[in-house]
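can u do me a favor
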């Protein structure tokens, strides 16, 4: 079949994909979890560069690796991947260069097709929910479950629309941040979480990529989501709410500070659904918590 996708030299083009591949390599969590959700556990021969172990994936997807042939690999060499004889590979654009895991042209010469996640392409500076829905739908067509993939994508879109309807005209003022020792990183309107917030009825407040503590205090958002690179979401929340610098923030007083994993909001694939459900639920609830006592 043919689909609009991309080559490793950052060019959009109509490319050919083999239907119902049987030896799939998924690079990154978005690819792995999207393919598992689409019922491809039996066809995965390797999952590359994921923070989840095989046991963690098995707990969430009981059918995972029943045949014992799927390898969990961290930064494998190109030769290792070639030995697995894949017929389909999925991942981010940055992974498919000759310095990493081979270009699209390299694999096509060896009888395998490569799908690059649309939101990972450098030609698109702004990332959107629609890109992630396209990712899910395209993979569904390639692996032979197009109708199911479209149902998932439609369900995520409906979740967003329902949240915007419930919020109505009272739009919460929102920021999505990542905290480091010296910087506050702001996920603004051009990012996937920013797009989710805006479509769900919220209002993003700053277009700056980096903020000082003083700037955050001055903005004083209604809701803050803290993005974490690991699974310890409570650590990110505590880092903000326990810092004396931020004690005047209204969202701390009302309990509207929430953690969210980075792989839900960055080239997220199926996990865009988790981000939408979580963020939409908290955006809808923010008004109910507004009268909570101050810490």
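np, heres the sequence
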């Amino acid at each position: 079949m043919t689909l609009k996708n991309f080559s490793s030299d950052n060019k959009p083009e109509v490319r050919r994909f083999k239907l119902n591949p049987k030896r799939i390599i998924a690079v990154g969590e978005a690819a792995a979890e999207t393919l598992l959700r689409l019922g491809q556990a039996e066809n995965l021969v390797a999952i590359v560069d994921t923070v989840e172990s095989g046991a963690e994936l098995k707990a969430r997807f009981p059918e995972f690796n029943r045949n014992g042939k799927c390898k969990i690999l961290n930064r494998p060499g190109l030769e290792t991947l070639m030995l697995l004889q894949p017929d389909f590979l999925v991942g981010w654009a940055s992974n498919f260069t000759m310095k990493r895991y081979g270009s699209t042209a390299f694999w096509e010469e060896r009888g395998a097709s490569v799908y690059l996640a649309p939101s990972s392409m450098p030609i698109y500076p702004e990332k959107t929910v629609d890109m992630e829905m396209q990712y899910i739908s395209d993979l569904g067509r390639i692996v032979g479950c197009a109708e199911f993939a479209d149902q998932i994508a439609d369900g995520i879109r409906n979740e967003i629309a329902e949240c915007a309807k419930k919020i109505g005209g009272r739009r919460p003022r929102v920021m999505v941040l990542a905290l480091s020792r010296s910087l506050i990183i702001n996920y603004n309107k051009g990012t996937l979480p920013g797009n989710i917030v805006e479509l769900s009825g919220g209002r993003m407040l700053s277009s700056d990529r980096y903020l000082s503590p003083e700037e955050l205090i001055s903005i004083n958002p209604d809701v803050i989501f803290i993005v974490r690179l690991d699974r310890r979401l409570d650590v990110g929340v505590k880092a903000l709410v326990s810092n004396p610098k931020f004690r005047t923030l209204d969202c701390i007083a009302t309990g509207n500070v929430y953690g969210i994993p980075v792989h839900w909001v960055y080239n997220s694939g199926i996990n865009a659904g988790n981000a939408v459900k979580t963020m939409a639920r908290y955006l809808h609830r923010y008004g109910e918590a507004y009268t909570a006592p101050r810490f």
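The radius of gyration is 20 Å. hope that helps!!
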